[in-house]
């Protein structure tokens, strides 16, 4: 999967970057296990193909603090989605096009007295970029509908305390939100 990126060192402590990449995801064995109709493998399932772009900023503040900010866009064709799920049997199909757009921010730093922190937040708009169908009988999933199971926001925070005199004792507290 090819990726192309550029970095501009705006200042000694600030980098601005952009990248573009292409990727694909082959169907997993579980996704190939059942055909939508009849028995046998779902050999009609195609790999999903994506094109992604990202722009961002990475900054250091002193030797103690780091901040990252990024915006991204991912366009996928043939996204692998659930077609039916009945009686313990799940079948999959390819949706025509999907789109993920979002922003991410992260901070990491030394707080002194053995304490360090990390916080990250992601906002994600994940939607069908074209009409799709799912289910039996097929139901329309209109363009613009959100992708199921993909949270719009994720947040993570962590604070740690290190006591070097006690053979590397580290204690931490983490919190996560989706």
Can you tag this structure with a few keywords?
single chain; 178 residues; mainly beta; 8-stranded antiparallel β-sheet; two-stranded antiparallel sheet; 1 helix; 68% strand; elongated
Question: Can I get a quick summary?
Answer:
The chain is an all-beta fold. It is 2% helix and 68% strand.
Can you walk me through this structure?
- The chain is mainly β and 178 residues long.
- Helix content is 2%, strand content 68%.
- The radius of gyration is 22 Å and the shape is elongated.
Largest β sheet strand count, sense and barrel closure: 8 strands, antiparallel
SSE string = EEHEEEEEEEE
User: Could you give the count of β-strands?
Assistant: 10
How many H/I helices? 1
Enumerate the spans where pLDDT stays under 50 for 5 or more consecutive residues: none
Instruction: Please tell me what the overall shape is.
Output: elongated
**Assembly category:** single chain
Radius of gyration: 22 Å
Query: If you average the pLDDT, what whole number results?
Result: 94
- Per DSSP, what share of the residues sits in E-state strands of 2 or more residues? over 45%
- Order of strands, widest sheet: 1-2-3-4-5-6-9-10
Intertermini distance: 29 Å
Which secondary-structure class do the elements indicate? mainly beta
List the helices and strands and how they pair.
Layout lengths: L2 E9 L2 E12 L3 H4 L15 E14 L3 E22 L2 E24 L2 E14 L3 E3 L4 E3 L11 E11 L5 E9 L1
């Amino acid at each position: 999967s090819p990726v192309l990126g550029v970095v501009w060192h705006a200042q000694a402590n600030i980098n601005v970057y952009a990248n573009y990449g292409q990727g694909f995801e082959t169907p997993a064995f579980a996704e190939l296990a059942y055909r939508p109709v009849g028995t046998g493998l779902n050999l009609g399932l195609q790999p999903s193909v994506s094109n992604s772009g990202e722009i961002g900023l990475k900054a250091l503040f002193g030797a103690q603090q780091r901040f990252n900010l990024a915006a991204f866009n991912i366009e996928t064709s043939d996204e692998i989605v659930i077609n039916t799920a009945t009686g313990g049997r799940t079948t999959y199909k390819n949706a025509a096009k999907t789109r993920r757009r979002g922003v991410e921010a992260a901070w990491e730093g030394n707080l002194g007295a053995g304490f360090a922190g990390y916080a990250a937040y992601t906002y994600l708009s994940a939607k069908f970029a074209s009409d799709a169908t799912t289910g039996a009988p097929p139901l329309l999933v209109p363009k613009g509908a959100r992708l199921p199971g993909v949270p719009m926001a994720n947040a993570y925070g962590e604070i740690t305390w290190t006591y070097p005199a006690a053979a590397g004792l580290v204690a931490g507290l983490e919190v996560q939100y989706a």
